[in-house]
Amino acid sequence: MICIITGDIVGSRKIKDSWLLSLKTALKLAAGQNNKWEIYRGDSFQLEVEPENAIKTAAYLKACIRINKPADVRMGIGIGEVKHKRKKLSESSGDAFVNSGIAFDSLKQAKVNLAIKTDFPDFDEEINVLIKLSLITMDSWGIVAAEMIKLALENENLLQSELAAISGRTQSSVSEALKRAHYSELMEMDKLYRKKLNQILSK
Fold this sequence. Notes:
With 203 residues, this protein is an alpha+beta fold. It has helices spanning 18-31, 54-66, 95-110, 121-138, 143-154, 160-167, 171-180, 183-201, and strands at residues 2-10, 37-40, 44-49, 72-80, 114-117.
């Protein structure tokens, strides 16, 4: 089982290209050792991650793009098997890719920026409700909130005082930004997603 995230930048033609460097850096970091990511058609991308990291990765990519306000990102998360693994992600195939495409194509109609599709409809229904609720917060992240979410996800083991030292802000402003961005609630959602995913995959 793998996870494929398919995405594109919302309104990319109307905004300056500062998001492109942010996207490349974020994809590189999110892909880690496997280095499976690709940008195509100028503003579209695909990324392969472990299924359990799907929600956290999507939140991370969103934060990296939201720093370049008014840029935003749409993403479809697909989880499933791989049939043909090729060097280029866009030339590979299998359920993970199909599911990711279906999730991505459903975004416009559902008027949301993030959705998930697996081979388990009940799981999808449940997680997509959580995602919709989380988007109320994520879609309204300002630049500072997005910067703090990005920093917190890149340094999950650090204390807020250490995040403050890295960012050059006071601890209270870091705490305030993370609170405003609902970071702890996002982490709770990520934990619940991992638990539910493990339950269906271990059946």
